[in-house]
């Protein structure tokens, strides 16, 4: 048995039955990372000694009779999520040597549940990107084809899960950063409702759309992780005070009687026919399972990418202003005065995409342009949210494509920012509206995976995951070739 290939559910059952130990499971994942990550480049930091110590402690808790779905389960963490005593770099030279002084709430809850941290995963610098090519340290490869990107910005987490380096991984999703790499890597990716999971300890990108979610092998695994990390948090005023659902209770309830909407704007004549066919095949699966398929419209969808790429740079400009090297972060010793300190610290530490977004945001927020850009983009955002509110009076969930196509080749789009931004065309609107969304594998196009996106009502993760389970993502296709 290859222990690193187990799902959370499978591994948890074996641990509770004492057929395997957390130490054995953790060693299997660490061995896989050691043998494979030289090619994949998914990890920025591997904490082998700490992981083994956590696994030993988990085995003691199991031996003492403690039960828990994530007790003893090894996982990786996207490196823009704080982990106490471990470097948290956000894949930027600015934070290259920054050691987190506390855990993110999501990590803290997983640790208390007995999960085992293996290390930190690569990402686009400060989560700015859709390919994991803007990392200051390395370019992560897609396990299905090492010449292609894994998606971004949670590309390291997605690639690690797809390559069975861990049992699951944490990621962040601001405008598609979990969902797009999940689609490219043939796994399940859950973006939670805004406020469902605390953002405490997540390095801010776009504070009004940032969310923490997970990259996993099955929809049931997504429910198991969410069961632990969801809930209110005294450290995050934006975290919802509503009590989380029991995400496992009706997971196998099926879709009979549910209404599934197909938004016309996501299925225009411009869509790749192969992508359309795979998504429509998923609609047919749900129909055969008893769901009603309904054609709906989200008329302001076409404005989602332009609105997102005004709002996001504006909030990035504000959030990254604190990183000047004076208190922590990169500091250029050659600077002779305050002006040079700012120019050399920020100019030397931020990569091209971070600089581009800072400049765009600063311009859009400046006097004379705030009303024309940021204020207007937020008005459009409200129109997009109202579209969803209206549609969800008719249907329970929406089924859409996730990406315009399969994973593109490394270097193919990195020098064309507009083309790269258009990778978010199917995922940005749900982020602007603060809605939950999950991506499940649907099939292969020319040997590469593609995922379907399900979008749900605010705080509607339980129903969303039930529909995802009905699509049977556990098929895992032919698995990666490596």
List keywords for this structure.
about 475 residues; alpha/beta; Amidase signature (AS) enzymes; 11-stranded mixed sheet; 11 strands
Let me know the largest β-sheet. Answer: 11 strands, mixed
Distance between the termini: 17 Å
Order of helices and strands: HHEHEHEHEHEEHEHEHHHHEHHEEH
In the CATH hierarchy, what is the class of the domain at 3-253 and 437-475?
A: Alpha Beta
CATH topology of the domain at 3-253 and 437-475, by name, is Amidase signature (AS) enzymes
What share of residues are in beta strands? Answer: 5-15%
> How is the largest sheet built, in terms of strand order?
1-3-2-4-6-5-10-11-9-7-8
| Rg (C-alpha, Å) | 21 Å
Helix content: 25-40%
Average pLDDT: 96
Q: How would you name the CATH homologous superfamily of the domain at 3-253 and 437-475?
A: Amidase signature (AS) domain
Oligomer: single chain
CATH architecture of the domain at 3-253 and 437-475: Alpha-Beta Complex
User: What's the helix count?
Assistant: 15
How would you sum up the global shape?
globular
Low-confidence spans: none
Concise synopsis of the structure shown:
The chain is of the alpha/beta class. The chain has 15 helices and eleven strands. The protein has a domain at 3-253 and 437-475: Amidase signature (AS) enzymes.
């Amino acid at each position: 048995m290859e222990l690193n290939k187990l799902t959370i559910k499978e591994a948890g059952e074996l641990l509770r039955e004492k057929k395997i130990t957390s130490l054995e499971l953790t060693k299997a994942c660490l061995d896989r990372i050691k043998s494979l990550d030289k090619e994949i480049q998914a990890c920025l930091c591997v904490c082998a000694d700490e992981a083994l110590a956590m696994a030993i402690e988990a085995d003691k808790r199991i031996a003492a009779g403690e039960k828990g779905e994530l007790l003893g389960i090894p996982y990786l963490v996207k490196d823009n999520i704080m982990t106490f005593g471990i470097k948290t770099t956000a894949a930027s030279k600015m934070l290259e040597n920054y050691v987190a002084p506390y855990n993110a709430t999501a990590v803290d809850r997983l640790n208390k549940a007995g999960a085992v941290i293996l290390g930190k995963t690569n990402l686009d610098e400060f989560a700015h990107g859709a390919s994991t090519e803007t990392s200051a340290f390395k370019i992560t490869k897609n396990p299905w084809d090492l010449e292609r990107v894994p998606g971004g910005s949670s590309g390291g987490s997605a690639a690690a899960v797809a390559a069975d380096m861990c049992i699951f991984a944490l990621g962040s999703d601001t405008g598609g950063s979990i969902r797009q790499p999940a689609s490219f890597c043939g796994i399940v990716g859950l973006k939670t409702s805004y406020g469902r999971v605390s953002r405490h300890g997540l390095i801010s990108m776009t504070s009004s759309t940032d969310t923490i979610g997970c990259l996993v092998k099955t929809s049931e695994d997504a429910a198991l992780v969410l069961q632990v990390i969801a809930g209110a948090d005294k450290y995050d005023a934006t975290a919802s005070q509503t009590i989380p659902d029991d995400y496992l209770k009706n997971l196998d309830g099926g879709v009979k009687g549910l209404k599934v909407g197909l938004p016309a704007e996501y299925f225009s004549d411009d869509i790749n026919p192969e992508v359309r066919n795979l998504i429509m095949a998923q609609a047919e699966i749900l129909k055969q399972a008893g769901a009603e398929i309904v054609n709906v419209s989200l008329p302001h969808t076409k404005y989602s990418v332009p609105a997102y790429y005004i709002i996001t740079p504006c909030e990035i400009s504000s959030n990254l202003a604190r990183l000047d090297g004076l208190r922590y972060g990169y500091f250029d010793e050659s600077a002779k005065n305050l002006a040079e300190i700012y120019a050399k610290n920020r100019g030397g530490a931020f990569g091209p995409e971070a600089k581009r977004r800072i400049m765009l945001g600063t311009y859009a927020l400046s006097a004379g342009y705030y009303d024309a850009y940021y204020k207007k983009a937020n008005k459009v955002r409200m129109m997009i949210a109202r579209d969803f509110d209206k549609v969800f009076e008719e249907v329970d969930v929406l089924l859409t494509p996730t990406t315009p196509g399969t994973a593109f080749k490394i270097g193919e789009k990195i020098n064309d920012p507009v083309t790269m931004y258009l990778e978010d065309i199917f995922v940005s609107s749900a982020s602007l509206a603060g809605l939950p969304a999950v991506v499940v594998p649907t099939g292969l196009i020319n040997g590469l995976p593609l995922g379907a996106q399900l979008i749900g009502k605010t705080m509607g993760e339980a129903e969303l995951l039930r529909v995802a389970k009905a699509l049977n993502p556990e098929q895992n296709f032919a698995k990666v070739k490596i």
